[in-house]
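For the sake of clarity, the format in which proteins appear in this thesis is described at this point. The record quoted next illustrates the convention:

___
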Amino acid sequence: MGRSRILVAAASIAFMAYGVRYAYGILMPEMMAALGINDEQAGLVYSSFLGAYIAASIAVGFLIDVRDLRRVVLYFLPLFALGTGAMGFASSLWEAALAFGVAGVGASIGWTPLVIWVQRAYSERRGTFLGILQIGCNLGFGTLGLILPRALPLIGWRGVWEALGLLSAIWLIPATAMARGSSAPERSDLSLSRYLREFGSGLGDRAFWIGGLSYLLASYAIMTPLSFSADYAKFLGSGPAGGGALFSIIGLVGIAGALGIPALSDRLGRATGIVINNSLMVVGLVGSALARSYMSLAAWTAVVGVSYGGVWVLYAALVRDIYRGDRAGGIMGAWTMLGGIGLLVAPPLGGWLADALGNYSATYLVAAAAGALSILMMLGIGAGPSITCRRRTAAAS
């Protein structure tokens, strides 16, 4: 019962954290009209969320390695609820940026602590249960993507933000408070200062940079269809509904990917799972680049969707395979920063390529190249399940 409460709490937080992130894209047009801001300024608001999220994720990763993980999550959840709700009261660009930045700080507990907590609770089949956690992320933006367009005419964009903030407070905080167990740091004798010294000495580790850079490249690759699917669909002659359908395809097909490939990696090894997953990503991106009709794009987007379901989970499990539990949070936080660079670079670079060439083929082919490089780097880590034993044995000696 205790472990199931942890999984429910983690999936609930992931549902809201990722749902709110993508809700901004749905509510943005209404906010732009009301606040009198342009596309560039609207992008600044989202950048405030993502920048705060990335920066805070590093600190959160350190904290959960040396403090009680559940308490750290409970410290940050009120910030997430407050910032989300405050978006409904914004009357200017800077108020919206500040509110969403606060929400981004709070949302920093929406991945790194959750994947560590679930892996501590379900140490025997970590890939499988991380896949279940990923479903919470998929359902978050999938469900809110269906609900919010219908709620907008009823309560307006301000009412939607206020409702999301209230729901986060009354649902996530009690769910986390009731989830107990597997949250204590794995080394009770480790002070924060000593931890930071040990962590810093490990930054020269080859596996840290190979895995982290592979994560950056994979993040860039997967962010491309998340950024340009709707515009690409319009370029191929589809209406707004067609663009929205592509996001639903990614979310729904991603559930199969989240359940299948991470579970397979429990048997074949994490690096092998990443190679399989990212290979599907590359194939889907190349196919999308060559698409000449909306139906063809939709079919290749479904292939990309399978990889979307597995990519975040597999790298999270790989961290635990390579490193001792007492450093896994900090490493995951650092990899989140590297992955965030890929997420930040993909939209402007992909947009520049599309504007310069007048189509989306190069945008998707560059993303495919990034995905292929992520695979090559992963081959340098090793593909077998024995990686866990090798690294932990070396750490203990």
Summary: The mean pLDDT is 86. The first helix runs from residue 2 to 35. The CA atoms of residues 283 and 303 lie 8 Å apart.
